[in-house]
Amino acid sequence: MALFYFLLPVQRCPAIEFLPIRSFVMADLIPPPLPDLFMSIAGKTILITGSSSGIGAQAALQLARAGATLLLVARREDELRQVQRDIATVGGRAFIYPCDLTNAAELDACVTRLLDEHPRIDVLVNNAARSIRRPILEALDRLHDYERTMQINFVAAVNLTLKLIPRFLEQGSGQVVNISTMSTQVPIPLFSAYLASKSALESFSRSLAVELGDRGIAVTTVYFPMVRTEMSGKTAIYKNMRMMNAEQAAGWIVEAVDKRPARVSSPVGALGSVLLSALPGPVIELTRPFFRRMDQKLASKLKKG
After folding, report:
1. Residue 2: what pLDDT?
2. What mean pLDDT is predicted for residues 282-288?
3. What is the residue-wise DSSP string for 44-108?
C-alpha cells in the first residue's frame, strides 16, 4: 500500500502509465483546464464559499472566464472585493456576500439575500474549511478542535445546502459540489478532527445523491490531494512537501461543474479507497510506518532550512 504514495498518474484516468516520484501529490503533472472549452458552464450562477483566497478564489476566476456568474461568500470582505475586481478584469461578473458561515444568524441573512437577489442559483460549491494537524494524544483535552472543524466543514456546509435545496427543486435542477480530501480515501494520521468532518460531509453527500438525484440535483465530491494554500501553509513541516497549487486544484472544481460526476479524484485516491474498504486492517498496518518515515524526513528538511 505504501507504494501507492510513490506512484503518480499522469492524468486522472486509471488506465495510464505511472511515474515514480518522491511524493504522492499531483503538483506539476496536471495542468489546469481551459475554462473556455467548458461551454456547459456559460450562463450558470455559481455560489462558492471560502472564495476570498486560495482554491475558492482561483475557481471563481476560472469559472468566470468560462461564462458563469459568481456569488462569492467568505468572511473577509476586502479580499472578496479583490476577487470581484479580478473577475471583472477578465470580463466576468461576481457578487460578494461577506459572511461568517459558522454564525447561524449571519448565514440565514446571507441566504435570504442570495435567494432574493438571484432568481436562479445553479451550483453550490462548499469549499470553506478549517484544518487542524494534531496527534490524538495531544488533543485529549481539546474537544474544541473537533467542534470547530465540524462547525465549518460539516454543519455550515449542510446548513447552506439545506437552505438551497428548495430553490434547486423549484428550478428542477441544481448541483452541490462538496470539497473533501484524498486523506479520507487512505489512512492518514494526525488530522483526526479534519478528516472526521470531511467524512461526515461525504456521507451526507451520498445520502443527498440517493434521495434527490432523480429530482435533478447532482452531487459531486472532490477529493483533493495536498494543495499549497494559506491553510496548508500554517503547518510548517509541509514547507518542503511537493503539493498541487491552487490554480490546478481550482481546475478540478471546474471539471466537477462541467461534467457533474459523482466524484473527482486521483486514481491513487480511488484505488486507496477501494483497498481500505476491502482490507482495512492490512492497509492501515502497511501504511503506518510509511507515514512515520515521511514525517521524519519532512521534519529533518525543516530543521536544515
Report:
1. 34
2. 89
3. -EEEEES-SSHHHHHHHHHHHHTT-EEEEEES-HHHHHHHHHHHHHTT-EEEEEE--TTSHHHHH
